[in-house]
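Hi,

I'm pasting everything inline rather than attaching a file, because the server keeps stripping attachments. The sequence lines come first, and each chain or strand is labelled.
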Amino acid sequence: MPESIRLIINRESVDVPEGTTLAAALLRLGKAAVHRSPSGELRGPVCGMGVCFECRVAVNGRGHMRSCQTICEPGMEVRTDE
Amino acid sequence: MWPSSESIEPGHSLVMPSSFDIAIVGAGIVGAACAAEFARLDLRVAVVERDIIGGGATAAGMGHIVVMDDSEPQFALTGYSRRLWQELRPQLPDEAEYETSGTIWVAADDYEMREVHRKHRYYAERGVSTEVLDCRALAEAEPSLRGGLAGGLYVPDDAVVYPPVVARFLIQSTPGVKLFLGSPVREILHHGVRLESGDSILADKVVNATGDAAPSLTPGLKVMPRKGHLVITDRYPGFIRHQLVELGYLKSAHSDSNESVAFNVQPRRTGQILIGSSRQYGVSDKGIDRTIVRSMLKRAAQYLPGIGSLSAIRCWTGFRASTPDKLPLIGPLPDQNLYLATGHEGLGITTSLATARLLVSHATGRETPIDIAPYLPARMMEHQHA
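And the predicted assembly:
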């Protein structure tokens, strides 16, 4: 079994297996919509391979990070658009 | 030499059955402004464009409406043009993204701070309001700037606009302007232009407003392309609030060395950050030069340490039309029906409206609102026409 790591998603502690992408961690929480388009529509991971840019979230205060291209790290602070 | 009017056969192979008072070559913001200005006087105007509206330097400019003080003529032109922008503003469509965000000229050290005070006095003597920011006021105005900067000069009435939208607006919202897109001009004739297709468009007067391409239609013009790069980020609203330009910018803009970069960044209404600027002579390749982009971004990061953690989404280049004396060419060529409106280098968006007002006043025998003499092409044509 891979090690479990703990990160914070929208102020909530979440445990995921090491090596999990952030997009997968968000989906485990049932968060399919994580990003708002400029016109305010909710968006979520579509391609899962870094191309569509629909899965962007803020990671450690840095905006527009593609969650599908980000591996979860211990203590990572993640904020989605609500 | 110029083909005589006899070389056109009227009525034969014409795009338009009727002729025009004015044919403007180039649908950048300068050509567009000239078109709107001529049409306002009920003249019949053709705009002839090889590509699309505002697709050249207009799309590669930052759209910074800025008063500059490198020389008196430059101050006169930019100051007058900024007033014209303020008058035009209520008519502009929302997509023109006109924002009076103001400029802050950033002084890194005490030496540059002296330049801030000099600029402040210069503008004050000429009725342009500015405000000197000390170290703390600068940090309050722009918290993302690094600490330890000496201060800056805040110019509140400078603005930002999205130039290609304005060019389209000026052409399409003005009755009496006929637009020929995808129509490369092969040569300028005495009474009109001949297209690459072989068709001719007849006009009493022709305006060459083709930016850095102007010498290809008007040989002998001392207009040189000066390449620039721009980078735009994703949306980070509030990262910066004003157009931020290093005072050392003038060293870059005025240096005649082949390559230079300067810190010049702009907040867009979308929250995106537009990052400039670079200047290169002697390059005709449109491709992105990674070395230049790297040093441009490094320069920006020296002022805005956090900029390196933002995502850039696009990078592009363009060519400014530069002249030896850093002033544009506005007005007639000697003994021709040909007018020039080019050579604006990095100030073509700002000065487009004033250029049009001056050119059209002069071409229609009216008094020009400011003295046109410093911009007349005659100052550079002596040798060609001697």
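The longest helix of chain B spans residues 72-88.

If the labels don't parse on your end, tell me and I'll reformat.
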